[in-house]
Amino acid sequence: MNGLSCFERILFGGELVDKLTPINLSDIGRATIENAPELPTRSEAIQFSDVQLKFPKPHQLNDPHKKAQALHAFANHELLAIEMMACAVLVFAKTHPQEHVLLKSIAGSLKDEQKHFKLYVHRIEELGHQFGDFPLNTFFWNYMRKAATPEAFLAMMSLTFEQANLDFAIFYRDVFRQHGDEITANIMQVVLDDEIKHVAVGSFWLNKWKEDQELFEYYLACLPENLTPNRSKGILINKEVRIQAGLDDNYINKLISYDDNYKLTQRKTWSSRE
Ligand SMILES: [Fe+2]
Ligand SMILES: [Fe+2]
Question: How far is the CA of 212 from the centre of ligand 1 (A)?
Answer without folding.
Answer: 31
